[in-house]
Design goal:
Layout lengths: L2 H7 L13 H11 L11 E5 L3 H23 L11 H8 L2 H10 L13 E8 L22 H13 L3 E5 L6 H8 L5 E10 L13 H4 L14
Antiparallel strand pairs: 1-2, 2-4, 3-4
Helix pairs in contact: 2-6, 3-4, 3-5, 3-7
The protein binds flavin mononucleotide.
Length: 230
């Protein structure tokens, strides 16, 4: 695939063929992703390739509470974990997570319940000591530091695409960050940025659902005129 096609069609893949991903393929993916940008070229990313079956199951078990909470909050009509959510209202709808978990236990399970059997599971950490979080002292929620690690996460997916792989960036496990850090030996000064899951896709999406340019781009001011196609 050429770059433009890759950008337009690299969707989230959560269903994988059983074929293992050879280590040399994964190594090439990481070798390409390391050229990602980061603030001051700090390259604070650290990747743990989670191979041990017990650790994989533990990671799945740390993913699931967030997943059921996410589904419950969404079912309650709220945007899960938006930094501007009313926390009390969110907690009320999140209480439905146990019901979601019970209902899920009746079924065959999906991506979340079978996370441990994905071909590749990568825990992506970032070293906080090298991240430039330029908005760290603001009253509002700070997120600029993430910009020094998420381009890397995305490049893992793009580089994977070049190798015929698909995958998804997941963040549910961050809800259980202390336990994930203990599980994978991450020191205090590291934060969990994502768990990346990769494998050979069952289906490759052709068309992604995304809003058009003029719906999110304006001229000179956020409430300025839409930037239209020439
Ligand atoms: C920061 C971030 C966090 C995400 N977290 C999760 C997650 O925890 N679990 C999951 O299944 N997908 C997760 N996704 C994948 C999104 O759901 C997906 O990118 C989005 O729905 C678009 O899907 P599409 O590319 O297939 O259209 C995450 C994506 C991003 C960028």
């Amino acid at each position: 695939v050429d770059l433009s096609d890759a950008l337009r069609t690299t969707g989230a893949i959560r269903e994988f063929r059983p074929d293992p991903v050879p280590d040399d393929v994964l190594w090439r993916v990481l070798d390409a992703a390391r050229f990602s940008p980061s603030g001051a070229n700090s390259q604070g990313w650290r990747v743990v390739v989670v191979q041990d079956p017990e650790k994989r199951r533990a990671l799945r078990d740390l993913y699931l509470p967030g997943w059921y909470e996410y589904l419950a909050i969404r079912a309650g009509g709220m945007r899960p974990w938006s930094p501007v959510n009313d926390r009390d209202a969110e907690a009320r709808v999140a209480a439905g997570a146990q019901g979601v978990r019970d209902a899920a236990a009746e079924g065959p399970g999906g991506f979340a319940e079978h996370l441990d059997s994905a071909p590749v599971v990568l825990a992506l950490f970032v070293e906080l000591g090298v991240v430039a979080a330029v908005d760290r002292d603001f009253e509002r929620y700070s997120f600029a530091g993430g910009a020094s690690v998420y381009p890397f996460a995305w490049n893992v997916l793009l580089a994977g695409r070049d190798e015929g792989l698909g995958g998804v960036i997941t963040t549910m496990c961050i809800r259980e960050e202390p336990a994930v850090k203990a599980l994978l030996g991450a020191p205090d000064e590291y934060a969990l940025a994502a768990v990346l899951v990769l494998g050979y896709p069952v289906h490759q999406p052709r068309k992604l659902t995304r809003a058009p340019v003029e719906s999110f781009t304006t001229v000179d001011s956020l409430d300025g005129p839409a930037f239209l196609a020439p």
